[in-house]
Design brief:
This protein is 56% helix and 16% strand. With 179 residues, the chain is an alpha+beta fold. It folds into 2 domains: 57 residues, no CATH class; 99 residues, H-NOX domain, CATH 3.90.1520.10. It has a 4-stranded antiparallel sheet with strand order 1-2-4-3, covered by helices on one side. The N and C termini lie far apart (36 Å). It binds protoporphyrin IX containing FE and zinc ion (ZN). Protoporphyrin IX containing FE binds next to helix 1, helix 5 and helix 6. The site of zinc ion has 6 residues, from loops.
């Protein structure tokens, strides 16, 4: 994982639980908290921080990852507004993540750890995103989708089935616009 992800996790924890909260997380995780945004860190380090943040805040890991994803969508918009602005609507944006956004991210950071999404457009208001990643961060993806929906001003229903955490080989993220 890139240091930029750690920066965003710190911003979220500091935002909700103050500096003391973030210090407590670092202490619990045994981390010095020195992350450089463009540098790559082992996935286990992020997992360690998320586990520590869950212990410190009492929020279950999937809920924490969802909250983190939602917050991350806003942070990504601050850092990379054109990816959002180039899309006409939420569904077009979500389809662009695998085909455009993460492709550009890969050019910027050749060693980025990115998931793959395969898409099925069920009908104009429904998109199925099949998520695959050895990191199984599907709850983070849920949060990113919810945060993106908020950005585009859409209300959505999100159904997550099947799930890699239940032994499936991918996670199905069904996005439905509520009109
Ligand atoms: C402007 C929009 C976006 C940008 C710039 C962006 C960029 C990134 C970056 C830099 C990482 C970390 C790579 C690493 O640490 O090595 C990442 C990971 C990830 N991205 Fe995106 N992303 C965007 C939108 C999205 C959206 C909307 C979703 C979900 C639908 C998504 C799903 C994920 C997931 C789940 C990961 C975690 C890694 C994994 O699952 O293997 N991203 N993205
Ligand atoms: Zn899942």
């Amino acid at each position: 994982m890139k240091g930029v992800v750690f920066d965003m996790l710190r911003d979220l924890v500091e935002d909700r639980f103050g500096l003391e909260g973030w210090d407590a997380v670092l202490e619990k995780a045994g981390s010095d908290g020195l992350y450089i945004s463009t540098q790559t860190y082992q996935d286990e380090q992020l997992v360690g921080l998320v586990v520590a943040a869950s212990a410190v805040t009492g929020i279950a890991i999937p809920d924490l990852l969802r909250a983190f994803g939602e917050f991350m969508a806003g942070e990504l918009y601050k850092r990379f507004p054109s990816f959002f602005d180039n899309a006409q609507d939420l569904i077009q944006f979500l389809v662009s993540v695998d085909r455009i956004v993460h492709v550009e991210v890969r050019k910027l950071y050749p060693d980025a750890a990115l998931p793959t999404f395969r898409y099925q457009r069920e009908n104009p208001d429904e998109l199925l995103m099949n998520y695959r990643s050895p990191r199984k961060l599907c709850h983070l993806a849920e949060g990113l989708i919810n945060g993106s929906a908020r950005h585009f001003g859409n209300q959505i229903e999100l159904v997550h089935s099947p799930c890699m955490h239940d032994g499936a080989d991918h996670c199905g993220l069904h996005v439905k616009l509520v009109r």
